[in-house]
Amino acid sequence: DDYGTLSSWYIWSTLGFYPYTGTYNYAIGSPSIQTAIICLPRGTLNIQVHNSSDANIYVAKVTVNNRTVDLLHNPFLDHKNIDKGGEIQFWMSDHPTMNYN
């Protein structure tokens, strides 16, 4: 038994981000959902994935509360930006991109 470690990794990865150990950040990954609603103690976090498909496995753009995340230089979400809820949006693509704007 791994005390839920594998299960929690799966849920986080499915959402498209997961805790970066030892920090208050979450590493951004490729979500496998289209929408999710997470009820937090201080608000609701809505996650929306655009252009989701089996072919579109690359993250082209991420916004948190309408602010674009700099995926090239800082591919993380800061906990303080989502702890009260809000919205995370992912835009997916069928090819990798270096233009993360």
SSE layout:
Layout: H1 5-15, E1 17-19, E2 25-28, E3 35-40, E4 43-50, E5 58-64, E6 67-68, E7 76-78, E8 86-93
Parallel strand pairs: 4-8
Antiparallel strand pairs: 1-2, 2-7, 3-4, 5-6, 5-8
What labels would you give this structure?
single chain, 8 strands, mainly beta, 101 residues, three-stranded antiparallel sheet, 41% strand
Describe the structure in your own words.
- The protein is mostly beta strands and 101 residues long.
- It is 11% helix and 41% strand.
- It has 1 helix and 8 strands.
- Strand 5 (58-64) and strand 6 (67-68) form a beta hairpin.
- The longest helix is centred in the first third of the chain and has 11 residues, at 5-15.
- The model has no long low-confidence stretch (mean pLDDT 92).
Brief digest:
The protein has one helix spanning 5-15, and strands at 17-19, 25-28, 35-40, 43-50, 58-64, 67-68, 76-78, 86-93. It has 101 residues and is mainly beta.
Q: How do the strands line up in the largest sheet?
A: 3-4-8-5-6
Oligomeric status: single chain
Instruction: Note the beta-strand portion.
Output: 35-45%
Count of β-strands: 8
Question: Taking Cα atoms only, what radius of gyration do you get, to the nearest Å?
Answer: 13 Å
Regions with pLDDT < 50 over 5+ consecutive residues? none
Mean pLDDT: 92
Percent in helix: 10-25%
Which sheet architecture does the biggest sheet show? 5 strands, mixed
